[in-house]
Amino acid sequence: MTHAIRVQNLNKTFGTRQVLHDLALDVAPGSMVALIGASGSGKSTLLRHLAGLATGDRQVGGEIQMLGQQMQKDGVLNRNVRRLRSDIGYIFQQFNLVGRLSVLKNVLLGRLGRMSRVRGALGMFNKEEVNNALQALERVGLLEYAYRRASTLSGGQQQRVAIARALCQKAEIILADEPIASLDPESARKVMETLADINKRDGKTVIVTLHQVDYAVRYCRHAVALKGGKKYFDGPIGGLSNDFLSDLYGSEIGTALLFGEQDVKKPEARDPARLVLAAA
Ligand SMILES: Nc1ncnc2c1ncn2[C@@H]1O[C@H](COP(=O)(O)OP(=O)(O)OP(=O)(O)O)[C@@H](O)[C@H]1O
User: pLDDT tens for residues 59-91?
Assistant: First the structure.
C-alpha cells in the first residue's frame, strides 16, 4: 500500500460557506504528520472527513481513501464505513471518555467496532480483550489506574486513556484533533511522547492537529498547513520558516500560539527557525 491516506479534490461547504477547497493529500504509511493552520482554517473539518464522521459536498466532494479502501466519494460514505472506522482511532481534545465507567472499561470500548453488536451491547469482553486493554494501559503508563473511575483522572491522564483506547482498538491510523490544547505543558509532553512512541515503535500512521508549532517541530517529521481551507504547505517539518509561519497565522501569531509555556521563559527558544533547525 503506497498511501495510508489519500484525499483527492475534497470540497466541503457549510450553508453557503465553502470551508475546504479542492483539497488533495497523500500520507505515507507510518508517517507522523502535524496538521497546522490558523483557527478556522479547516483542520478539524478535514480530520472528521478522514474518519468518516463528515461527508464532502454531494457530487463535487471528491474522494477519500483510507488504507487503500474508499471511505467516501462525492459526499457518500462507503457502505462498509463501520469496518473502515475500526482501523481509525480518533482522539478528541476533550478526551470523550465515559466518566462514570472505569478506566479499563473505557479502554475496552475501543473494541466495540471489532465485535458483534450483541456482544458489544452486553459488554461481553473476553479474557484476551481484557488483557489487551491492560497492556494498552501499561503502555501509556496508567496500569495502576485501571479500576478507577475515568472522571477522577487528570486531563492529561484521561487523554492517555483515550490513546490506550485507540491502541486496544488496534487502529492503524490515529487522528488526534488538538489532543494537547487543554493540557498543561508536562501533560502535553507526555501525550505527544506517547503518540510519537506509537508511531515509531508500532509504525502507526499519526495525524495530529496542533496550535503550538513548537510541539509540531519537536514530535513530527512532516507538516501539512491549511489556510482558508486550502493546502498551503505539505513537506518536511524543517521547511517551516519564520516568514512562512507569520504568513500562515497572520494576526494570530504570538507567544501563546507558537510556543508552549515551557519555552516562554526562554527567549532564545522562541525562534521557530531555531526550533526547526534543532529538530532537523
Ligand atoms: N458544523 C458546522 N457548521 C457550520 N460551519 C462549520 C461547522 N464546522 C465547522 N464550521 C466552519 O468551518 C470552518 C473550519 O472550521 P474547523 O473547525 O475545521 O477549523 P479549525 O482549523 O479546526 O479551527 P480551530 O483551530 O479553531 O479548531 C470554520 O469557519 C467553522 O466555523
Answer: 999 999 999 999 999 999 999 998 899 999 999
Domains along the chain with CATH numbers = 5-87+173-279 (3.40.50.300), 97-171 (no CATH)
Give the whole-angstrom CA distance, residue 85 versus residue 78. 11
- 21 in Cβ contact with 13 (< 8 Å): no
CA of 256 to the centre of ligand 1 (A): 20
Higher pLDDT, 256 or 37: 37
Give the predicted TM-score (pTM) of the model. 0.88
Distance 41 CA to ligand 1 centre (A): 7
- Nearest-CA residue for ligand 1 atom 13 is 40
Average pLDDT over residues 274-278: 39
pLDDT of residue 270: 41
